[in-house]
Description:
Elements lengths: L4 H9 L50 E12 L1 H4 L2 H12 L3 E7 L6 H9 L6 E5 L11 E7 L3 E3 L5 E2 L12 E7 L11 E8 L5 H18 L6 E6 L8 H4 L4 E3 L15 E6 L6 E7 L2 H5 L3 H7 L5 E6 L20
Parallel strand pairs: 1-2, 8-9
Antiparallel strand pairs: 1-13, 2-4, 3-4, 5-7, 6-7, 7-8, 9-11, 10-11, 12-13
Helix pairs in contact: 1-5, 3-4
Amino acid sequence: MAKKKSQASWWIAVGILIVGMFSFLGKLQLGNVLPSIPTVSTGSTSGENPSGPTSQPPAASKDSIRIATFNIQVFGVSKMGKPIVRERLAELVRQFDLVAIQEIRSIDQSVLPNFVDLVNAQGADFKYLIGDRLGRTSSKEQYAYVYRSSLIEPVQGSIYNIEDRLDRLHREPFVGSFRMRSKPGEGGEPFSFTLVNMHTDPDEAEYEVGQLAGVYNFVTTYRPEEDDVIILGDLNVNASKLTPLTNIPLLRSVAGTGPTNTRGTKQYDHIVVNHQSTLEFTGRAGVLDMASFLKISPQEALDLSDHQPVWAEFRTTEQRGSIQVASPFTEQTVR
C-alpha cells in the first residue's frame, strides 16, 4: 500500500491526539436494540445505466453486505417532527446493512436514537455509533454509523475522531472499524473493515480532499493489521477532483460518473475503496434514486435530503490474494 509520508506526517504527529481510544467511549453512544428478524430488501439492481442513479437498492444476500453513505441534509428535530419524512428516511436506511450518516445537526441528542428506534419499528435490529459535535461555528454537525447488529459489530477501541490541531479540516473524520459476526457452521474468516466518515466543507472541498490522503495513510498505519480502509461520505467534489486520493495506487471511488445529488446535477458523495487490498468489494455499487424507489415526486425526495444514498456491496468473508484486484471494476461502475 502506497505511503505518502510527506502528506501524512502531520497526521502521524498528532496520532496521540486521537480522541482517546477509548476515553471517547464515554462520548460514543450505542442505540437500543429491538431483537427480531432483520428487514430483507427484495429490490434488484440494474447494471444498464452506469452514469445514472438506480431506482432499486441492491438485493439482499447471505454472502454479502450493503454499505451506504447518506448525507441526511440538516438532520435534526425539524425533520424528525415530520412523520412522512422520518418514515421515508427510515425505509431508506433499512435497505442497507450499514449506513454512514453525515450532517446530523441538532443540539438535541435524542434525534438519532429516536430515529434508530423508528428504523427498528418493523422488526430490524440496528444499532448506532455517533461522534462528537464538530465545526468551527455555532452550527455543529455529527457523524454516525447505523448498522445491522445481527450481521455487523464494531471493533472495541477502534472508534474515534482524529483531532486536528492545525485546524485543516472543518469536521474531522469519524473513524470506525467493524467486522462481520461469525455464525456457527459458516466457513471463512469474517470480513473486517475500517470506515472513514467525512463531510468536507463545500467552500474548501478540494483542499480538504487533499488532506484526506494524509488521513488515509494515517488510518492504514494506525491499525496495520486492518488492510480494508474505506473512505466514504459527502466529499463535495466529483470523481475527477479526487486525485489526491486516486493517486494512491488503486484507490478509487465506486460512485461511477453520474450525479449523486437529488436534483441530478452534481456528484458529491463517494465510497472510496482500495481495489488491491479490499478484494471483498464485489464490483457492485450505485446511487439509490429516492423518488423512484419510494414512488414519490422529486420535490418530496428533496424534502428528505439534497443527497441520494450511495452504496457498495462487499463479501462477508475475507478474500486473500497477492496479485488479485477487486473485480469487476471500471471507472463506470456497474449500477
